[in-house]
Design goal:
Layout (H helix, E strand, L loop, with lengths): L11 E2 L2 H11 L6 E5 L7 H4 L5 E6 L4 H9 L5 E5 L16 E6 L5 H10 L4 E9 H8 L9 H7 L2 E9 L4 E2 L6 E8 L5 H15 L6 H7 L7 H10 L13 H15 L1
Parallel strand pairs: 2-3, 2-5, 3-4, 5-6
Antiparallel strand pairs: 1-8, 6-9, 7-9
């Protein structure tokens, strides 16, 4: 077995029951394509080989990618990609649709990878990621709590998200210092790039000032810098109290408000 690289945040999933549970949660059908990010030695991959239309394995590690190619590179239904999942061109894999993504996510790239998967074309039917439990709680947090923030809004305005099951740290080698959890995301169809960017802009402005009231944020944030009358009009339009703080606004009202604010930005 290849030793984990600290520089790649590698913690290999060694628990066979958890691997089976991840595949069951992905719920891929024979006509689906599956993209696995960071397959490592291929223990999760081997549970899916021959069960789906196409399996794409994206591995950055210079030691592991050749091993995967030697093992499965001759199969017409498997594509091994030696590259960085944050940079590869999804459209070059020939997956077609429907496609599903699964990953035991390296901790160091959790947020960038999640949004990369949500941005993928063709759009995913389902995404299953194994992440730190703290991050899983933030992704799936409900409005009003301290865990609800920019990550919650960024994901929940793009997809239905739920925490599927928790995974103890002993399921990995080397053993990390935290427990993990599997999160399922099912993207909403038809979100435009304009909507996505609008939500990102408002999330950055709002949650970097989360102790401030919404009205104050909209008046003082350089992204908007609205006048008092504009703040009053836009919050009234959406039935939002301008004295609420960002963590009290649910994903859908947040997305609608973000788009309206874009029109005011001109």
């Amino acid at each position: 077995m290849v030793r984990p690289k600290r520089s790649l945040s590698q913690n290999f999933l060694v628990d066979k029951n958890i691997r089976r549970k991840l595949v069951e949660t992905l719920a891929a059908e024979p006509g689906d394509a599956v993209v696995e990010v960071g397959p490592g030695h291929g223990e999760l991959s081997e549970l899916m080989i021959g069960t789906v239309r196409r399996l794409v394995l994206i591995e950055k590690d210079d030691r592991l990618a050749p091993l995967l190619s030697d093992r499965w590179g001759d199969r017409p239904d498997v594509l091994v990609v030696h590259g960085d999942a944050l940079e590869v061109d999804w459209s070059s894999f020939g997956t077609g649709s429907p496609v599903r993504f699964v990953s035991n996510v390296p901790y160091a790239i959790t947020s960038p990878l999640i949004f990369r998967l949500l941005d993928a074309e063709p759009e995913a039917r389902r995404i299953v990621v194994l992440v730190q439990e703290e991050v899983a709680r933030r992704i799936t947090a409900a409005p009003g709590g301290k865990e609800y923030g920019a990550l919650s809004v960024g994901v929940q305005t793009r997809a239905r998200a739920r925490l599927a099951f928790r995974v103890g740290r002993q399921a990995f080698r080397p053993v990390p210092g935290v427990d993990s959890a599997a999160v399922v995301m099912e993207p909403f169809p038809g979100r435009t790039r304009e909507e996505i960017e609008a939500v990102r802009r408002l999330a950055r402005a709002a949650f970097s000032r989360r102790r401030k009231q919404l009205g104050t944020i909209l008046r003082t944030a350089p992204e908007y810098h609205l006048g008092p009358e504009e703040v009053g009009a836009v919050t009234l339009e959406f039935g939002i109290d301008p004295t609420v703080r960002p963590e009290q606004i649910g994903p859908e009202p947040f997305a609608a408000l973000a788009m309206r604010l874009e029109s005011l930005r001109g």
